[in-house]
Design brief:
199 residues; Rossmann fold; alpha/beta; two-stranded antiparallel sheet
């Protein structure tokens, strides 16, 4: 965390996070196997976080799981919006540390689970939040198959990543989010919040 600075995502100024500026430089400095996704407020996560803060009834009083939580932004937004219980899950031990630090920074509580849930049956929750999970060719089918098995309401945030299916989802919100050319190749990117279409 010493290589990050406290800041707020452009679309979610209510929540402060320990953030980095350069993913490649941070990854080289850390020397970790996985990129430091936890040090950035990815666009899909910002969109889901904004949605639950603007539409608190989507999570208020409910049990929420934030899948591939990264920095914990989405989980923290759900907690701030009044969720009864929030679990933030990720496979990266540094994400677990980041979520705990970011929760303390915002005086919020979420449970943090270090696990890969995708080969298991989804847990008994009311809402599953998933920001920016369709960026990888191998992981995306696993994530989507897992989401299809849950009985919870699913809200998925995505800035039109390459592996996002072009059908099977209904848009519930969309935002134009400021970003950087270093991360996204553009300065503003349209990002949608999607829910699986009824089967």
């Amino acid at each position: 965390m010493e290589r990050t600075a406290v800041g707020a995502p452009p679309l979610v100024p209510e929540i402060r996070l320990h953030l980095a500026d350069d993913i490649e430089q941070l990854w080289q400095e850390l020397g970790t196997p996985a990129p430091p996704f936890w040090a950035f407020a990815w666009l899909g996560g910002q969109a889901v976080a904004r949605y639950v803060l603007d539409e608190p009834s989507s999570v208020t009083g409910l049990r929420v799981l934030d899948l591939a939580t990264g920095s914990g932004l989405v989980a923290l937004a759900a907690a701030r919006a009044g969720a009864a219980h929030v679990t933030a899950v990720d496979v990266d031990p540094l994400s677990e540390q980041a979520v705990r630090r970011n929760a303390a920074l915002n005086d919020l509580h979420v449970d943090v689970l270090l696990a890969d849930l995708l080969d298991d049956e989804p847990p008994d929750v009311d809402v599953v939040l998933a920001g920016d999970v369709c960026y990888d060719r191998e992981m995306t089918p696993r994530v989507l198959a897992w989401l299809a098995r849950t009985h919870a309401r699913v809200l998925l945030g995505d800035p039109d990543r390459a592996y996002l299916p072009q059908s099977g989802f209904a848009e519930v919100a969309a935002y134009d989010i400021p970003t950087t050319r270093a991360l996204e190749g553009v300065e503003v990117k349209r990002t949608r919040v999607l829910s699986p279409a009824p089967r």
